[in-house]
Design a protein that fits this description.
Radius of gyration of chain B: 15 Å
Largest sheet of chain A: 7 strands, mixed
Number of strands of chain A: 14
Shape of chain B: globular
Largest interface: A-B, 25 and 27 residues
Distance between the termini of chain B: 12 Å
Number of strands of chain B: 3
Shape of chain A: globular
Number of helices of chain B: 3
Order of helices and strands of chain A: EEEEEEHEHHEHEEEEEHHEHHH
Helix content of chain A: 25-40%
Helix content of chain B: 25-40%
Oligomer: heterodimer
Distance between the termini of chain A: 41 Å
Strand content of chain A: 15-25%
Largest sheet of chain B: 3 strands, mixed
Amino acid sequence: MNDVSPQSTGTSSQTASKRPMPREIGSGVWWLGDCLGQLYNGKIYHGYNAAHMVVGTTAALLSDTGHPKDFLVIAKHIEHVLARNPGVPLKYLFLTHQETPHSGGLGRLLAKFPELEVVGDVSDYHLAFPQYEHRMRFLGEGEAVDLGGREFKIVEPVVRDLRTSNWGFDTKTRCLFPGDGFAYSHYHWDGHCGLVAEEATSLDLVDVCAVFQERALFWTTFVDMERYVERMEWQMKVLGVRLVAPSHGLPVTDLERTWPEIRKGLLAGEGKFDDMVKAAPEVGARAS
Amino acid sequence: MWSDKIEGPWLMEGDDGVTSNTFVRSFLLGTGFWWLEGARSDPLRKGVRRVFETYDIEMICPGYGAMLKGRELVKKQFDVFDAVLADLDRTKVQGRYIAREPARRMSEGAL
């Protein structure tokens, strides 16, 4: 059973975090959530299904809900952050996309926080929760919500899972919330849980990017990713990004140092699925 | 296959009157497969072909739309899908960064 106490040294039975969660990774930007173990190449890799909070002077926003299995952990983390910011309500929920690890806590959060409004591309959520349709508001790219002293802006989703994916951006810390855009695992066995990318010195980003390319972003192995990587670089330059808070990867706090390695990881995936197709003669065996 | 009537039909046999290369291409690029344009589709074609050749498929029950019944109709779906994937391959279409907007919205005539 998970230890859901905020600031615990390990938020799940799987996690041996050197740093307690939730963790403030930038001024008013909080990293919430827990790890999920994934078997890959005979090893257990850990990946986050994170949520993030951005806290202004008048309102707080939650970016993604995290994985439904982590709801109790994340709900405690939210309470922890709100307790540190008295008088600031959790007013907005932004979802990068509709997949369960990103939006699976939607109904429970809307029930728990009556003031909460879902903003962004809110396609289809009303089909699951028609009782909350009046609390779902479309915001397009370039539009923002005011949190007091900072804005949370909807920005172009360069690497996306779904037609309705969006990325977010905090104007105060210049933090990008790319959902699956900077998706990579980390090494639980090396104590990476709860660390930012620059603290996880033994992290091989080419190795850990591959886990998510195969499992979540398989399409990136069929396309010329150079074009997408160039667009990410263009976007980071235009927005002046200084901090990255991905859903699955460790937060990036020094882009100059870490981006070149992530870049390599994103480009290294081409052809990986080809090998799986070649290695699938067992399909015929199963059919017989 | 979509229908504007809740009662369907949701089970198609014979010619569905809709499936064509243009329709399938537009649907793929307008939904979750925007990235196919200029991608390497050959490994995908091999995988899809393997499914068709391995199993004696009489019916397709897709996640969305009508069920398609009968070997002829099933074969047509696979043939059209294969042709569309071949036409989207990077040897025929130059790969490029495809932004979310314009989102090839179906409401704007993508289909």
